[in-house]
Amino acid sequence: MDIKSRIWDFCEHPRHTKWIAPILVLGDAFLCALIIWKIPYTEIDWTTYMQQISLYLSGERDYTAIKGSTGPLVYPAAHVYSYAGLYHLTDSGRDILLGQILFAILYLATLAVVIACYRQSGAPPYLLPLLVLSKRLHSVYVLRLFNDGLAAFAMWAAILLFQNRKWNAGVIVWSTGVAIKMTLLLLAPAIVVITVLSLSLLPSIRLGILAVLVQV
């Protein structure tokens, strides 16, 4: 095999993703550390999240009364529970550096799951480096600590579970993601189509009921 053929095989054959993937995750971990070290944290919603969580933890349960600097609480319950955990871990939100580190770990976990989805589908290796080049994703996770990262992790974890035909687990994880940020409802039509084609109508209805029960 000549050099040109070797390069083409390296770029095209899915078997090479098994060792390219960990290199990309490690490289992106270094990049995340560099971003946290060199680029200032961007205050947009973190303080508001923490103010809202403080009210929730003090006993307030009326959504209209749970507010922060930039407005009222507009996200579902799993968002509140997730950021309540972060509230305790980061000294009531004051330890922003720790928050950034936790979100960097979340970003890397999400990246690993996304790569697993790509590998599961037989994607060629040349696609994988594109996954670590997004300036926007690094900003959303590491600099702004948005809840989009939590929702995205749930979405990709659900996709991976669906790829492996873990239907109940996939629906539970997806529905939990919806309870973090309702934009994940946009996946509902695709999930309905996939489950009906894979399982038939009645099992799909049961999965729909399961998704609703998670919200309850």
TrEMBL record:
UniProt catalytic activity: an alpha-D-Man-(1->2)-alpha-D-Man-(1->2)-alpha-D-Man-(1->3)-[alpha-D-Man-(1->6)]-beta-D-Man-(1->4)-beta-D-GlcNAc-(1->4)-alpha-D-GlcNAc-diphospho-di-trans,poly-cis-dolichol + a di-trans,poly-cis-dolichyl beta-D-mannosyl phosphate = an alpha-D-Man-(1->2)-alpha-D-Man-(1->2)-alpha-D-Man-(1->3)-[alpha-D-Man-(1->3)-alpha-D-Man-(1->6)]-beta-D-Man-(1->4)-beta-D-GlcNAc-(1->4)-alpha-D-GlcNAc-diphospho-di-trans,poly-cis-dolichol + a di-trans,poly-cis-dolichyl phosphate + H(+)
Topology of this chain in the membrane: Multi-pass membrane protein
Molecular function per GO: dol-P-Man:Man(5)GlcNAc(2)-PP-Dol alpha-1,3-mannosyltransferase activity
Subcellular location(s) of the protein: Endoplasmic reticulum membrane
EC annotation from Swiss-Prot or TrEMBL: 2.4.1.258
Top-level taxon in the UniProt lineage: Eukaryota
Segments passing through the bilayer: 20-39, 96-118, 139-162, 182-202
The protein's annotated pathway: Protein modification; protein glycosylation
A cellular component annotation (GO) from this entry: endoplasmic reticulum membrane
Keywords per UniProt: Endoplasmic reticulum, Glycosyltransferase, Membrane, Transferase, Transmembrane, Transmembrane helix
Major subcellular location class: endoplasmic reticulum
Function statement: Dol-P-Man:Man(5)GlcNAc(2)-PP-Dol alpha-1,3-mannosyltransferase that operates in the biosynthetic pathway of dolichol-linked oligosaccharides, the glycan precursors employed in protein asparagine (N)-glycosylation. The assembly of dolichol-linked oligosaccharides begins on the cytosolic side of the endoplasmic reticulum membrane and finishes in its lumen. The sequential addition of sugars to dolichol pyrophosphate produces dolichol-linked oligosaccharides containing fourteen sugars, including two GlcNAcs, nine mannoses and three glucoses.
Family the UniProt entry places it in: Belongs to the glycosyltransferase ALG3 family.
PANTHER family in alphabetical order: DOL-P-MAN:MAN(5)GLCNAC(2)-PP-DOL ALPHA-1,3-MANNOSYLTRANSFERASE, NOT56 - RELATED
Protein name per the record: Dol-P-Man:Man(5)GlcNAc(2)-PP-Dol alpha-1,3-mannosyltransferase
